[in-house]
């Protein structure tokens, strides 16, 4: 007879069935135990919980750690989102800060313009400096005021600190300002306190040249330079700058105006100046040549006919003169005899 081999599976199957059955019975008993409403059973449940739960803390450690990791990950996610939100807000704040800084600078320029003391007879209009679109001058700017605002050629322009230049070209909505530093700029100035007058000439450099001074020894570095008003083109008394001595030992002027940050200009109205509609009015008509008076008299005497005898030609004619000369000669001859 052949023996049937008994493998491990033949023992494990009944054992698993037995364990499953016991587990079901235990769970059913716990269920019934927790469903019974009795003071004794309640005390038993409390004692069972007190005996089992403290000893199960080791089993809850992995679960607690896992829950902590999940919470930490969620907190990290929230922190990352908050960080991104703060970065976006920071970028917006940087843009607002730059806008506020620009507005502050513009406000400061306008306040500086209001602090400039001018002649009460002078009125002004404030314009904003625009980008230069090119001109025959080397150093000039555009302002957003023109003929519609009553601007005329030759009017002076100032910033909040001093004289900047004059209007040289007026359009309907814009005007061109030739700066003091331009090589085509020539303005008459007065050096204070000596009162010396001169001419400020631009050289396309930050320090225009001060020339044609009457007495240069009376001018020293640090003296104040203002417009003189000679020629009636510019108002007198506008601050230009201070005298310095350049590296070439020549007198120059440090301009009071801030040419690095020209944002607003004040155009001074000079209504008493008559605008030149005809450029030929600047040139005087040529004078006719005239002969000297002595030459005219000589030519007249040469052209006159000769007078005969010593008769009277007139009250002051040559006849009386010849008679007086003969009488004088006779008197002198008698005296000698």
Write down the secondary-structure element order.
HHHEEEEEEEEEEEEHH
**Percentage of β-strand residues:** 15-25%
What is the 3D form? Answer: rod-shaped
CATH architecture tag of the largest domain: Beta Barrel
Strand elements, count: 12
Structure write-up:
The strands form two sheets. Strands 1-2-5-4-3-12 form a six-stranded antiparallel β-barrel. A hairpin with a 3-residue loop joins strand 6 and strand 7. The chain folds into two domains: 90 residues; 152 residues, Rod shape-determining protein MreC, domain 2 (Thrombin, subunit H, Beta Barrel). The protein is an alpha+beta fold. It starts with 7 loop residues before the first helix and ends with a helix. The protein is built from five helices and twelve strands. It is rod-shaped. The longest helix has 59 residues.
Question: Outline of this structure?
Answer:
The chain has helices at 8-35, 39-52, 57-115, 293-303, 318-336; strands at residues 123-130, 140-143, 156-158, 163-170, 175-179, 186-192, 196-201, 209-211, 224-227, 239-245, 251-255, 264-269. The protein is of the alpha+beta class.
Give me the secondary-structure topology:
Elements: H1 8-35, H2 39-52, H3 57-115, E1 123-130, E2 140-143, E3 156-158, E4 163-170, E5 175-179, E6 186-192, E7 196-201, E8 209-211, E9 224-227, E10 239-245, E11 251-255, E12 264-269, H4 293-303, H5 318-336
Antiparallel strand pairs: 1-2, 1-12, 2-5, 3-4, 3-12, 4-5, 6-7, 6-9, 7-8, 9-10, 10-11
Which key terms come to mind for this protein?
single chain; 337 residues; alpha+beta; Thrombin, subunit H; 2 domains; six-stranded antiparallel barrel; six-stranded antiparallel β-sheet; 5 helices; 12 strands; disordered C terminus
């Amino acid at each position: 007879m052949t023996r049937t081999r008994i493998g491990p599976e033949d023992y494990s199957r009944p054992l698993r069935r037995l364990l499953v059955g016991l587990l079901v019975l235990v769970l059913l008993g716990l269920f019934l135990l927790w469903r019974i409403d009795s003071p004794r059973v309640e005390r038993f449940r409390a004692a069972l919980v007190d005996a089992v739960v403290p000893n199960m803390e080791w089993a809850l450690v992995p679960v607690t750690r896992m829950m902590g990791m999940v919470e930490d990950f969620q907190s990290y996610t929230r922190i990352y989102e908050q960080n991104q939100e703060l970065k976006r807000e920071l970028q917006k704040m940087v843009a607002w800060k730059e806008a506020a800084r620009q507005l502050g600078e513009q406000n400061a320029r306008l306040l500086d313009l209001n602090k400039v003391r001018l002649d009460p007879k002078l009125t002004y209009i404030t314009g904003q400096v625009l980008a230069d679109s090119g001109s025959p001058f080397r150093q000039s700017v555009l302002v957003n005021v023109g003929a519609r605002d009553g601007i005329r050629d030759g009017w002076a322009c100032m910033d909040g600190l001093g004289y900047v230049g004059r209007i040289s070209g007026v359009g309907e909505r814009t005007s061109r300002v030739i700066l003091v530093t331009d090589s085509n700029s020539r303005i008459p100035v007065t050096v204070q306190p000596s009162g010396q007058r001169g001419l400020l000439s631009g050289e396309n450099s930050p320090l225009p040249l001060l020339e044609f001074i009457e007495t240069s020894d009376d001018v020293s570095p640090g003296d104040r330079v203002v417009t003189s008003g000679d020629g009636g083109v510019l108002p007198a008394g506008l601050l230009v700058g201070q005298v310095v001595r350049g590296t070439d030992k020549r007198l120059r002027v440090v301009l009071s105006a801030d040419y690095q940050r020209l944002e607003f200009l004040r155009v001074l109205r000079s209504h008493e100046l008559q605008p030149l509609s005809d450029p030929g009015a600047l040139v005087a008509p040529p004078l006719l040549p005239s002969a000297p008076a002595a030459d005219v008299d000589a030519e007249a005497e040469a052209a006159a006919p000769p007078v005969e005898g010593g008769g009277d030609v007139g009250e002051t004619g040559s006849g009386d003169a010849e008679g007086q000369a003969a009488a004088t000669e006779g008197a002198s001859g008698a005296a000698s005899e």
